[in-house]
## 1
Amino acid sequence: MKKLKIDIVSDVMCPWCIIGYKNLETALAQLSDEFTAQISWKPFELNPDMPVAGQDLNEHLAQKYGLTEQQGDENRQRILEMGEQAGFDFNFDGKRIMINSFDLHRLLTWAASEGKQTELKLAFFKAHFTDLVYLNEQDTLLDVVASVGLDRARAKQILDSGEYFQDVRSEQNTLQQMGITSVPTFIINDQFALTGGQPSDAFVQAFKQIAEQEAQQQ
């Protein structure tokens, strides 16, 4: 079995990050006889200057990207379809907001030390994109943390303090120095990168190419 180390640079606020991850899951399932994968999530903030209160998503997209209402509708339809193909449900029916995700990254850094980082990340994606809960409200956020078996009181202690602040900032700085400016970015074995919400076939092809290259280097 060949081992893959996969670091996923991602923001919970990014729909393409969960689409890309679900397609990665599919690829790894197809290649389960050949590869095992160790997955970790790295922090990226799409909107580091966003206030804690957040912003209406449609208003945010119009301001940041200049999307018209029609373009926004087309974009949502594409995301819905890509999500369906990947096996993830997006819900665009209610009021959605864009928030600052820094506290989520602090909790995800802690969750890694508890062996539950991917579980928490996926729970955050579902909460934000499917259940339309506001992850900038502490009680709601703590409910999501507790739902994956992490200690609620410990999570509150982290949120109320500066714990993991420097860890997240340090990782963000390292990624910026590596030239990573968009998400998702999948860094494989510390030397290969795939960007965007890639289809599962792209991952399959990449893993096979990587295995061939590494075999040649030995």
## 2
Amino acid sequence: MPTPRHPTPCSPLPIATGLVLTLGVLTTPMASAEPHTYEIDPDHFSIGFLTEHIGYADTLGMFLEGRGEFVYDEQTQRLHSGRVEITADSAFTNHDDRDDHLRSDDFLDAGRYPTIVFEATGLETHSDRQGTLEGDLTLLGETHPVTLEVTLNKAATYPFGHEQHTLGLSARTTLQRSDWGMTYGVDNGLVGDEVELILELEAIRQ
């Protein structure tokens, strides 16, 4: 299974194991100066990863199942809490044998560790739309700090369907999977150690 290349500690490649990620968010100061709970819409939650394969090309994969919510005050840009969970065996790279290998104990060990979890610990905003999210990522039974760069794309009433106030967010991070003990293919250069995580989501205010 290949490994991505853009570093920043935050979440692993085969994070597919049920990655339980927790996303906090920043957003333009708005109407209510009080924290609200935002639930990530599972139908608009994309969790991708990139990792290098023998130096030839990156392998692009996804976790098809994830959920999460956070408590956030849009006016003060303060994140009170946040948690994201990703189902490990939902890892998908469009190749059955590779996906089975990714779920095995060489990588995600989805049988023993079905969920990958991210718990937010802090948010530093750099502007109305940019910020750095700190948190703890639990993978393969180990917990280590990660940092994600977060962008608020839009904060508005949804134009159809649920018609609720919704935040549109993008988050990126790069981590070393070996930090979580996932070392298969690292020493011989078959699979990159760096894994780039790509998160795109819509979060609905409750």
## 3
Amino acid sequence: MSFINSLKKRRSIYALGKNIKDSDQAIETIKEAVKHSPTAFNSQTTRVLIVTGDAQEKLWDKIVADELKAAMKAQGVPESAWEGTKAKLDGFKAAYGTALFFEDQDVVKGLQEQFALYAENFPVWSEQASGITTVNAWTALAELGIGANLQHYNPVIDEAVAKEWNIPSNWKLRGQLVFGSIEDEAGEKTYMEDDDRFIIVK
């Protein structure tokens, strides 16, 4: 049951800090989790940008903030709504780092051409690979006592992120895993009844 216990440790932690004892181990753990996560046809479609330090500050304080503020203005969202959003972004900025997960669309398209019978499935399988890889990295970090939460500011930030860090145009941003020291535990989690969720046939 050790794996199940690891999954139970993986919670959305929003009170994060920069007090990670071994940052190299944290980054290596993310890399290993990505490397050993399954993908359809062993296609290894996942790509990851890991930002820490000044880059972490720039991601949340400049890139996400600027792009989101512009998007909100374009949507006619009142300026008064920005303060709540800014507080959230400040919380992410306070974390040690962020792993930005991408999927390589050139690999996906290549598989669609190579295996035409399954062409419509490869984008779906790519999305599944992204989810699997992200949660594996998240769980692995939890095992180290490092907290994380998953954000999705794509596609609002895609172009700005790509420009800032020279991301190849074939990398499609799928999520941002914010990670850092746990400054406050997650709240209690509730679960729906098993009878409403599972059908078991013998």
## 4
Amino acid sequence: MSKKVLSTPIKDEDLKDIKIGDIIYLTGTLVTCRDVAHRRLIEEKIPLPVDLKGKAIFHAGPIVRDLGNEKYEIVSIGPTTSMRMEKFEKEFIEETGVKLVVGKGGMGKNTEEGCKKHKALHLVFPAGNAVYAATKVEEIKEVHWKDLGMPESLWVCEVKEFGPLIVSIDAEGNNIFEENKVEFNKKKEEQYKLISEQVRFIK
């Protein structure tokens, strides 16, 4: 199977054949964007200082080395739990035109709706690989909102084949975490019934 690489700017048609469970890699612009940045845009109505249309964000709080003269280097960049941004993500996708939202763990109905309506993806970067992820960042092009501190600043990164990224919500709103819950709960009930028949004191 060929390696699937998406390059920014990403268009709707680039996502039409990508399904939950697929593994992709990203080349182009990836911007770190966490809780406070989401809150500033959605709740405080403060425009983002970077254009995200067709690009990707990463729910991440990187460790960055200051090289002086406005030059920076990513030391470590691990994913933050995406569910923390759940209440903002639908509006965030709508307002920014972002196409890829990368983080850790799953997201819910709000993000499903945003991905389906505006043709975007949520992807999971495997936790525990923050130093490896940093090797895929070729350059920090810009940084914005430094007043928020290193983890919450908007670090505009140029990446090459950043991944692996596992598609958890596709552009049709399918959610692999929710589908797995249904399947796992079904298996749990089957096993519970089987064990209950053999070990009567459970009931």
